[in-house]
């Protein structure tokens, strides 16, 4: 696997993990009783984006390490996945 392919796969994993981490620990302005005028009441009072980006990077590194271990080191590929639909042989 070239380093460009590895970087692209890591970016895709990172982006998916980011969208799973973003809603964690979010408290709305209503829940904190601190509504700022001119904003949506359900908007987060503190987003904590730097912490979430670090958490996303750590989780993505772990997932990418497993992916790299399975594909590059152990040599598994798409052909090694079991087939969901069996092949049917015509009856003669």
Short description:
The chain has helices spanning 3-21, 49-73. The protein is mainly alpha-helical. Keywords: Membrane, Transmembrane, Transmembrane helix.
- Which consecutive residue ranges, at least 5 long each, have pLDDT under 50? none
**In DSSP terms, counting alpha (H) and pi (I) runs of 4 or more, how many helices?**
2
What is the H/E order? HH
| Strand content bin | under 5%
* Tertiary shape: elongated
* Number of discrete domains: 1
Q: Helix content range of the residues, please?
A: 40-55%
Mean pLDDT: 88
Describe it.
This is DUF1467 family protein. The chain crosses the membrane at residues 6-26, 54-78. It comes from Oricola thermophila. Keywords: Membrane, Transmembrane, Transmembrane helix. This protein has one domain (3-76). It is 48% helix and 0% strand. The chain has 92 residues and is an all-alpha fold. The protein has helices at 3-21, 49-73. The chain has two helices and no strands.
Features:
92 residues, 48% helix, single chain, mainly alpha
Structural topology:
Layout: H1 3-21, H2 49-73
Helix pairs in contact: 1-2
Organism: Oricola thermophila
InterPro entries: DUF1467
Transmembrane segments: 6-26, 54-78
